[in-house]
Design brief:
Blueprint: H1 5-13, H2 58-65, H3 76-84, H4 88-94, H5 97-100, H6 105-108, E1 116-117, E2 130-131, H7 135-142, E3 143-145, E4 153-156, H8 157-162, E5 194-201, E6 204-211, E7 225-234, E8 240-248, E9 250-253, E10 260-264, E11 272-277, E12 284-296, E13 303-316
């Protein structure tokens, strides 16, 4: 289904009133639900540090050390959000070693033993670690809800993946697991998946955006990730003749006593189409698409941790 300007604008009007960071004032660790599934049994030695793995798995350890899994607890974005809402649930998901009593939990973030089950005689001939290399395994952290109900998911990347054309492919087929870096949108080496087409009518300018080769909605993950889309025009001499902006993201309300999704205009399987009036005298149109790691939308003010430009395109306007 294609989203018109009225649909996008209506969703945009809903993007206010929810609180920051991981959850919100109505949500506590007690009523945040994680999936009960586990790909393999928990290892018996989860209290051990990932540092022991480096002696035999140096290359994998180097890749992990540069990954967001390793920095999941220590990175500045999370620490800012965690200081605002220091819920045990947030801590234990970003550094599962806290649950296992690992002294190295804060420094490790998501460590080796959080994704690999190591048998007691690991290292002996024929004894190898098992890997949670499936979408079900990834959903333990990347798909969870705050309460029962279809609209209460805080993250739902696994559900989005299941509804995508890439449902049969594991997460690791795109987020390369071989070097243990699991590259995502923060990695400058990760290709930009957003593509834009533009058309101009006598009284209207239209941009269509699509995410190419993505096995989930874009952006996915944390609640406040967004695409900021700006379409502006200029006339003779570079005078700005119009300037419009929208955000493509999830919208939440708290009327039910917890954060509940009330709208979603992100890029998915179908493209999003946005139209604006064509101003008189415009000779060129410009499009900017910026990926935002949102931090908060308290009081209707959208604050961000950081951003990454994805697209910047221009088109000459004919008669």
């Amino acid at each position: 289904m294609r989203a018109s300007l009225s649909t996008v604008a209506a969703l945009g009007a809903l993007l206010a009133g929810a609180s920051c960071a991981a959850h919100g004032p109505q949500e506590t660790a007690a009523n945040v639900q994680r999936p009960a599934v586990r790909a393999i049994p928990e290892p018996s030695n989860r209290s051990e540090s990932s540092a022991r793995c480096a002696s035999c798995h140096a290359e994998a350890t180097r890749g992990w050390a540069e990954s967001m899994h390793h920095a999941s607890f220590s990175n500045a974005d999370f620490q800012q959000a965690y200081a605002d809402e220091p819920l045990p649930f947030c801590r234990d998901c970003h550094a599962p070693g806290f649950r296992a009593g690992r002294p190295s939990a804060a420094a490790e973030g998501i460590g080796c033993l959080d994704c690999h089950a190591v048998p007691p005689r690991h290292g002996d001939a024929g004894e190898h670690a098992n890997t949670r290399a499936s979408t079900v395994a990834c959903s333990n952290c990347h798909d969870f809800a705050v309460a029962n109900g279809a609209n209460s998911s805080l993250q739902r990347t696994a559900h989005e993946h299941a509804a995508s054309p890439f449902a049969a492919a594991p997460c690791t087929s795109c987020h390369e697991a071989g070097d243990h870096r699991f590259r995502g949108t923060r990695d400058p080496l990760r290709a930009n998946p957003v593509r834009a087409t533009f058309s101009a009518a006598p009284h209207e300018l239209t941009v269509t955006l699509r995410a190419v080769g993505v096995g989930h909605a874009f952006p996915t993950g944390d609640l406040f990730r967004a695409l900021r889309v700006r379409l502006w025009t200029e006339g003779a001499g570079g005078v700005v003749t119009s300037d419009a902006e929208i955000r493509l993201r999830r919208a939440f309300g708290t009327a039910a006593g917890h954060r509940e999704e009330v709208g979603d205009n992100r890029l998915g399987v179908e493209p999003r189409t946005w139209s604006v009036p064509r101003p008189p005298g415009a000779v060129r149109a410009h499009l900017d698409v910026i990926y935002e790691r949102g931090a908060s939308d308290r009081g209707g003010l959208f604050a961000i941790f950081g951003e990454r430009p994805l697209l910047s395109e221009s088109w000459l306007l004919g008669e």
